[in-house]
């Protein structure tokens, strides 16, 4: 580790569970700020972290089971005594495992997550909406659907949105045609979707919601860091420009422009401090043109796949962890990001196919001003390996094909 980068800290080793784009973004943030290589564990290699000089990946069979994951982490800790280890999960499942075993891991690792009881409660969407109700935070009109219920008297019209209340659990019950979120145009279509989900074994409630009109550019993502004393110290709002539209990737943000909205910052700061939250959280939000409201969908209790937009805006995500848990800094106040940047991990040619003229002009201005960033084109990695560069170019080309297949442009 470079001495001028780490400020004289003992050896810092980030340990990541997962190998997807989220893992890469976290590793990139660590390398940019501290010059360190991250160690990542997953069930199999993933392109985002493959051929990378900033990630050392190890495939571990059955890592998605708690026993194997904890054994892997504890064995790694034994092999790296004397180092500062921080463990971060890159998917909901891994974050849940880490939080559930927080007491076991804290003797060896920094574990910057809330307790498991709170995590379970707020990631259950109906519980999240109860808190929103208390704080007068708008959310979509919603029916909590239990197995065996009917779709009578929803209180809103079709098309409707159908999604699991407990997302992490839902993926443990796969079936053909499985999607992250479903849109049903009729009662018959909705009943078919519900039967498929429950027929696969999913045991929890479903969320049936009013469809908020508008394309991807009506979406927002709010990322916040809460220190170890449960005070919000940084917030960064992203205006989503485009999302993925593959069945299992639906809703993943792939192009974002940062914006400032003090009212929204204050609203979600109140939410987090009310529940004594610690660590990173992000909220999915959508603008409802029918009444001008910004409606919350859910909270994610980790850094999201698009977290590099926060680092790109000047608030390196992992520096908050190190300042808080390693250097034990005493923070004052809260930073509300007001730096406008454009971030994406797909080609600009794809993004501009979908942008309205006013937004496209704004993005072009940010590009002209040099305020444009890409996750996978991190110069140290992208320029350091022919195989890495080739992977990124193929990845970007494949996204062109995916959008043509699943979300044809209407321009």
Question: What assembly state would you assign to the polypeptide chains in this entry?
Answer: single chain
Q: Report the principal-axis shape.
A: globular
Q: Please give the largest β-sheet.
A: 8 strands, mixed
Q: Strand share of the residues?
A: 15-25%
Structural class: alpha/beta
Mean pLDDT: 95
Separate helix tally:
16
Poorly predicted regions are none
Radius of gyration computed on alpha carbons: 21 Å
- Count the beta strands: 16
**Straight-line N-to-C gap:** 49 Å
Helix content: 25-40%
In short:
The protein is an alpha/beta fold and 411 residues long. The chain has helices at 3-6, 21-34, 66-79, 92-100, 102-105, 116-123, 125-134, 167-170, 187-199, 262-274, 308-312, 317-326, 348-351, 357-368, 379-382, 386-406, and strands at 12-17, 38-42, 55-59, 84-89, 142-145, 160-164, 182-184, 206-210, 219-226, 232-243, 253-259, 279-288, 293-300, 335-336, 342-344, 372-374.
Topology, element by element:
Blueprint: H1 3-6, E1 12-17, H2 21-34, E2 38-42, E3 55-59, H3 66-79, E4 84-89, H4 92-100, H5 102-105, H6 116-123, H7 125-134, E5 142-145, E6 160-164, H8 167-170, E7 182-184, H9 187-199, E8 206-210, E9 219-226, E10 232-243, E11 253-259, H10 262-274, E12 279-288, E13 293-300, H11 308-312, H12 317-326, E14 335-336, E15 342-344, H13 348-351, H14 357-368, E16 372-374, H15 379-382, H16 386-406
Parallel strand pairs: 1-2, 1-4, 2-3, 10-14, 15-16
Antiparallel strand pairs: 5-8, 6-7, 6-8, 9-10, 9-12, 10-11, 11-15, 12-13
